[in-house]
Amino acid sequence: MAAKTSSFVTNIPLITTFKDLSVLAVRLEAGRQLYNAVLSEGKIRLQLVRNSELYQQARLINKNDKKAKSLAFQKAREAYRFSDYDLQAFANKTSIASIWIKSHLDANTIQKIATRAFKALERMAFGKAKKVRFKQKGQFSSLEGKTNKQGIRWTGNGVEWSKLKLPGIITNDPVILHGLSSKIKYVRLVRCILNQKTYWFAQLICEGEPYQKPKNIISDGTVGIDLGVSTVAIVGDKKTTWTSFAVELTSKQKKITKLQRQMDRQRRANNPNNFNSNGTVKKGSKRWNKSSRYKKTSVKKREIQRKQAAHRKSLHGNLVNQTLALGKHIKTEKVSVKAWQRNYGKSIGFKSPASFQSELIRKAESAGGTVLMFSTRKTALSQTCLCGNKQKKSLSQRVHNCSKCGLTMQRDILSAYLSRYVDPKTETLSIQSAGDGWLGMEQCLLDGWRNGSNQSARTATSLRSLIGNNESELMFSNPIPCEESEPERVNETHAVSWNPLPKGRG
Length: 506
What we know:
With about 500 residues, the chain is an alpha+beta fold.
């Protein structure tokens, strides 16, 4: 097995002619058909593995005997040729039998398509996915090679692939220059549709570390984070940030919702026989007629969703960089985003807190930092005070007011502060350490509370102008946009000197 080394991706736009676009479209279609064929064969082999006696016997082995259990499962897979290598062999035979696929795709690309299908099946085999999805026309948008020596490869200032030469648009951007100066492992071609126009990009998978911008400095401190549905609190050694989470995406989500309703009306008007009298969709297979206006609306919605995804990625990246500037040793509660989806599905869908979390973990670990995700049940930070008093709070209570010591602090900020003092080994909160560090951090936390309240009020005002006063009257009747479980925050902060003793004993 080849040694694993760190990698990063460099995106370079390509110059394409009308003929190049036609050739690439045909090769993408060949790749799509081959991918679906391999996926179908892999599903059959996986089902045979699961139905075999070897597989059933492997399931009965004690889970503590990991080596024997893993070896038994491996024998079951080998018996029915369910492996990356076997699916690559099937892909080669299929392409040769097709002739048309073989004439448009090289051996390395064919093998990489088979590997891509196997990874999708492997997720289903290990229970990480319920099913695999076959690619319909227009859904397969990338092809890649295995090395930079054969097939799809970067040579000079462009991509070469089977008599096809695509020059790259190379600027003096230090990010691109850093990627070109690094060793290129392999090249991926990606099709992007921007404003209804087709563009192609070369993704160079390079060996080494990505370019570090001077402004994105990574500190060596400890950072506590409290991530919520609509807000995030970040507490470092010298700075506290409390901000609304991806609230800038709300205006685009309003436009998407409006277009979705328009598409639903168009679909009902074009297919009246596919709906019951009560408006529900009839069961069984149906044929859906799509009008030209419906297709135009769909394209418009897709373009806004693309912009929203790019904006979300940018917002997440900025917040991750701000967090790592405070420290690369992250401590946060292990929250279940899937559980949030039950009550806040739409908000989770376009804000994507799990994506922010995974990006933060990836960057912190690649920078040599550590990430501790501790249990919420063991620590119960939102219910705990610095004096050790535990007091249950409802979700609507966003300000912590201790009945014993008189401490007043924003609930999320206090939880993020306490996260810094959770022991990595025992995953328990050290009240003594948190109390010792409070005196030097109290003003910093209060400043973060005040700045977060002012920022949210300004964001509400700007969103009113973007969405319209009529639509936003209900949303922003409170100064800060929150979820149903997170009502209005307090805009006025009161500095309270913390007394570790209960009232009447100080």
